[in-house]
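Our preliminary data section would be incomplete without showing what the modeling component actually yields. Below, a chain of 88 amino acids is followed by its predicted structure, encoded as tokens that our downstream tools consume directly.
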Amino acid sequence: MKAHNIMEEIVKNHLDDIMANRPQLCKCSKCIEEIMSRVLNNLPARYVTTDSGAMYTLIEQVKVERSSEILKELMKVIEGLQKYPVHQ
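Predicted structure:
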């Protein structure tokens, strides 16, 4: 089985929640990709090589363990991009 960084999925889920509650944020693919890459570069990777059922359990565990760290990093990156957007 191929290795997968479960932090990508967790960060994406948190980002989706933030975007849903903040209509003023740009939701273009360029901004989303920029947020994702910056946040993931600042968080530790969590690679797994397991089936989908076990992966779901690991994702939920990491969500609980790292939720505040992930949200803090997301907000820092989003605020920075609002001050200095990647596009006009």
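Residues 72 and 78 are 10 Å apart (CA to CA). The radius of gyration is 14 Å. Preliminary results of this kind motivate Aim 1 of the renewal.
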